[in-house]
Design a protein that fits this description.
Blueprint: H1 2-15, E1 18-21, E2 27-30, H2 35-52, H3 59-73, H4 78-81, E3 86-90, E4 97-100, E5 104-108, H5 118-133, H6 136-168, H7 171-175, H8 183-199, H9 206-218, H10 232-255
Helix pairs in contact: 1-6, 2-6, 3-5, 5-8, 5-9, 8-10, 9-10
Length: 263
């Protein structure tokens, strides 16, 4: 009976797949799982990440990240603002961050060595939130998991998570949620993230100086979480041009009283 239910669920999920358009005009193929299911997968993946840890107990770091996330979330569409966003800081040296469906944001403490002010930290977090609001996780599952993956994911959501994990690994492994996106997704997250940070009152030029810090810290080899993006110098040029275009947005946000003071 359970297998029959899962088969029907899989058929329904795959039938619901559709072509849509992102906010940047890019065509996307999404819909293998519902938003509620994506949120549940995000919750499970975030729980796994926290269990693996180690989590930072530094109250200042945690408050700093929470402040930046809250200020960015206030500028999201109403549906995303209604989510109870959760943050965690991990005691890991790699300069990394991620965001998951359902309003989950994780930041490695190593990121603070290159994101040296709130504008630079906001650039990273806004980029990661951009992946969520542009449905990149939905797109990844729909395009890459296929029918077998859909059965496994839907099985976990139907309360059979232990068996699914034993057969195919954790939710993190099944979805690849924490792997870099495609080059198109990474570029789109840059665009959306820079817009978001400017509208929240963060200087969009912080995205440029952040990447310059990344290069200084690690040479021309980008960290794993940005490995699918164009080469560093090309990226700096794109970010710089976009920052100049977004300065009026930033100035309007500041004039309207959106002046984050996170750290």
């Amino acid at each position: 009976m359970k297998h029959g239910v899962l088969a029907l669920a899989m058929v329904g999920a795959l039938a619901a797949c559709a072509t849509t358009t992102s906010s940047t005009g890019r065509t996307q193929f999404v819909g293998a799982v519902s938003q509620a299911q994506l949120n549940q997968l995000g919750e499970q993946a975030f729980t796994e990440a926290k269990q693996k840890g180690p989590l930072s107990t530094d109250t200042r770091q945690n408050a700093y990240v929470r402040c930046v996330v809250d200020s960015l979330v206030r500028e999201l569409p109403a549906q995303q603002r209604q989510i109870a966003w959760e943050t965690a800081v991990f005691s890991q040296d790699e300069p990394n961050a991620f965001a998951l469906p359902g309003g989950k944001v994780g930041v490695n403490s190593g990121l603070f060595s290159v994101a040296r002010n709130q504008d630079q930290l906001a650039a990273v977090i806004a980029h990661e939130i951009g992946h969520v609001v542009e449905n990149h996780h939905d797109e990844r599952i729909t395009r890459q998991m296929g029918a077998a993956g859909a059965v496994q994911l839907l099985g976990s959501l139907a309360g059979n998570y232990g068996q699914a994990a034993a057969q195919g690994g954790s939710v993190l492994a099944q979805t690849g949620f924490l792997l870099p996106g495609s080059r198109a997704q990474e570029t789109e997250a840059d665009i959306v993230g820079q817009r978001l940070m400017a509208s929240a009152g963060y200087d969009p030029r912080g995205a440029v100086s952040l990447w310059q810090n990344m290069i200084a810290a690690g040479g021309n080899r980008p960290p794993q979480w940005l490995s699918t993006h164009p080469d560093p110098q090309s990226r700096i040029g794109e970010l710089q041009a976009r920052a100049e275009q977004l300065m009026p947005t930033f100035e309007q946000a500041r004039a309207a009283g959106r002046r984050p003071s996170c750290g």
